[in-house]
Each structure stands twice: as C-alpha cells, then as structure tokens.
Amino acid sequence: MERGIFGQLILTFGTISLMAIGGANAVVPEVHRQIVEILGWMDAPTFARLFAIAQTAPGPNVMLASIVGWHVAGTSGLLVATGAMLLPSSVLALACSRGLQRFSGNRVVRIVTLALVPIALGLMLASGAVAALAADAGLFGFAITAATAVVTYRSKVNPLVPMAVGTLAYTAVWAAGLV
Amino acid sequence: MNALETAASASRPSLPNLFTGFLKIGLMGFGGVGPVARHIIVAERNWLDDRAYAELMGLCQALPGANTVNAAVMLGDRFRGAAGALTCVFALMAMPLLSLVAIANLYEAVSDRPRAQVALTSAAGLILGTAARLLAKADLARWAWVMAAAAFLAVGVLRLPMLPSLLVLVPVGLVAASLGARRV
Lengths: 179, 184
Fold this sequence. Notes:
The complex is a heterodimer of chains A (179) and B (184). Chain A has 179 residues and is mainly alpha-helical. Chain A is 79% helix and 0% strand. In chain A, helix 1 crosses helix 4, helix 3 (44-56) packs across helix 4 and helix 6 packs antiparallel against helix 7 (160-175). The radius of gyration of chain A is 18 Å and the shape is globular. Chain A starts with a helix and ends with a helix. The mean pLDDT of chain A is 85. Chain B folds into two domains: 1-113, no CATH class; 125-184, no CATH class. In chain B, helix 2 crosses helix 5 (67-110) and helix 4 (50-61) crosses helix 5 (67-110). The longest helix of chain B has 44 residues, at 67-110. The interface between A and B is large, with 107 and 93 residues.
C-alpha cells in the first residue's frame, strides 16, 4: 500500500515534470486532474488549500508537488514527490547544458523558445482560471481574484502584498457575516 | 587543461560559495525567485554578467521545469560538474521545503474555511495577473497568440489531459515558429 502511493507519486510527478513548460505554474490543471479526479487522493477544496500554501511559501513554484506529497504520505511523501518533480527536468537541463553550451543563443534554442513561450503563457492563464474556479468562493471571491490580477498586472509590488491584502479583506467581510 | 580552462577555474566559484548563493536565492524568494536569482547570480556573486545570465535564462525557459531549478543545475554543472549541480539544487530547495512544512503545519492549526479559500482566490489572481503581464510584454506574433489561446482553451476550458494536448501544441508551435523565424 505504502509502496503503491510512493510509486504513484513518482509516476505522476515524474511525468508532469517534463510537461512543466515555464515551470509548475503551467501544470496546475493537470496536477488537479490527476490528483483529485483520477487518483481521488483529496477533494477539490483540499487541493485548493494545498495550492494556496505552496504559493505562500518562498522558493521555486515546483513545490506544489512537495505539498501534495506531504499531504498524502508525510515527510517521505514530500521528499519523493519533490524528487520526482525535479529529477526528469533537471537531467534534461544537465544534458542540454552540456550538449548545447557552445550553441547557446543559436537558431534551434531560439525557435524552441519562440514556440514554447506562447504555449507556456496560455497554460499559465489556464492554471489561474482553474485555481479561481477551484477556490469556489462565490462572487466576492472572484472579485478578489480580479483585483489581485489587476494589481499584479499593473504594478511590480511583491506578490505577497496583494495576497495578504486580499486575505485580510475576505476575512473581514466573512467575519462581518456578509459572505 | 588548456589555458582557457585554467583561467576559468581560477575564477569559478567553490562548492560552499555556490551552496550559500543558492541557499540565499531559495530563502529570499518569497513570491517568486526570479528577481532574487538575478540579483545574487549577477550583482552579488558575479558568477555571470547580464548577457550570459539572459542567455542562460533563455535556455532555461526553453526547457521544462522551474527556471531557477534549471539555472541551478546548469550553473552548478558549468562550475563544478555534477556535484555542483546537486549542491545548487539542494541548496535552492532546502529552505523553501522547510518553510513549506512550517507554513503547512501552521495552516492546519489555524485553518478555517474563509482563509483557505481566499488565499487561493488571490493566488489565482496572482497567476492570472502575471500571465497577463508576460503576455502583454512578450510582443507575440499573430500565430503565437493563436497558440496561447489554443493552450488556454485545451487545458483551462475543455480540461483536456495535458500530455496529448502538448503532443499536438508543441509540434504545431515548432512548425509555426520556424516558418515565422524564416520570414524575419
């Protein structure tokens, strides 16, 4: 049973690792689909909460895998899921670094980047949309999502500032019994 | 070892130097490690100049995985081989993972419905806003806008599985990009 969970963590995040164009913010819908819908390891609100925690912590955005691993199998789950998420893409990076060093800035790299940037950005939008729906916090929740999006779009403040302000605003409205 | 390699090894950072640098990047990167990574790699430690950093980031963006993790792998390997790559990735992830567990425990303790939901509503807004800003700055060609829209529709609206979606999107994107690049 235990081995089953670890094997599944390795398989799931090892595959997702290679799909994470532009980082883990591209694969939120896929992680949600696999963990919640296919494997049934947690319900959507729990996934939403874990995603929020991963966004709050400092560090690279691959930690969505870490927190999912932690939730299903404790510290060993965290380590296994993190390793599975990091290893395939890192091995690929190592191979490319050694193979492409003298070609860096060449035509192939430029075309691959040119092709992947719009796909990565479309996937990132999809992640944001899926997360907004998963939050399921009603009209006021969507208002906060929209407000945070606009602030992030227009200014260069540390992302934690709009996140903290949004949380405070929502908590205040909730405490006042309006939601 | 030829003269060039000797010269490079004289200035290449040691393993402890790489370790503390990436430890700092991981620790200071609240809300995204990108800007901190540039500050430490270029300004503080002088591992790369701005141009080499931009080139490195370009390559990292063309690869799957978090950009900073890929940068850690490549820089570590360039300066100190496989041991360097391992050191950099470990240093980068160590503190964030510890704080992740700390935050998760704290969160379980105080967790109630509204805060859990709202942290997510603003996290979602954060991702949407970042994506919108990058899209606005990316100066995309018309075909590239179509690709971005197709990726959003497939994964975000139709909720199609990602692997088959990418197996269609990426080759189409590559063809479009090479045709577009030829014309320029």
